[in-house]
Design goal:
With about 160 residues, the chain is α/β, with parallel strands linked by helices. It has four helices and seven strands, in the order βαβαββαβαββ. The mean pLDDT is about 95.
């Protein structure tokens, strides 16, 4: 499993015993230090930690069965290259799991935020399909309550099928 935008590795930490070996990728040196410490202490055993920005870097020559990203995509202004890289990194039959915000009015991050104000599901479906994914599904999975409002989150799953 690759967790992209892994932060402190909480998702990989929760899933590690169910998915086998994990690779954690994040662009923040501080977050990578926290992850490396967790690996060293055995909290996330045998995990690899990568400095990887798929919006600018070529994907490594590796294949994963699953790529997971949680509350990361809305921070990336141009997600198409990242989605294409996810498709490249997945083995045939592999799955992408995205947890992120449904479209919102911009109040989640506030004025000056340069990313996405959540995602319109049909728009993201089209982006995923253009990147080569099939079987795209969405379901509401959580919500975040803040002083500025309540922000629904979705789980989107998609699959790579190179046989068609």
């Amino acid at each position: 499993m690759l967790e992209y935008g892994a932060g402190t590795g909480l998702v990989a930490q929760a899933l590690r015993n169910m998915v086998g070996p994990v690779t954690l990728a994040d662009t923040s040196a501080g977050m990578r230090e926290v992850m490396a410490d967790k690996v060293a202490r055995g909290v996330i055993p045998d995990a690899r930690v990568w400095d990887l920005d798929l919006s600018t870097d070529e994907p490594p020559d590796e294949q994963f069965d699953i790529v997971v990203t949680v509350l990361t995509l809305h921070h990336i202004p141009e997600i198409d290259p990242v989605l294409v890289s996810f498709a490249t990194l997945l083995a045939d039959g592999g799955h992408l799991c995205i947890v992120d915000l449904d479209a919102e009015d911009g109040s989640f991050h506030g004025e000056g935020f340069a990313g996405h104000h959540g995602f319109d599901r049909p728009w993201l479906t089209a982006r995923l399909e253009a990147a080569g994914f099939t079987d795209v599904t969405f379901r509401r999975c959580h919500e975040i309550a803040r002083d500025t409002g309540t922000y629904p989150m979705f789980l989107a799953t998609a699959r790579i099928d190179r046989t068609t």
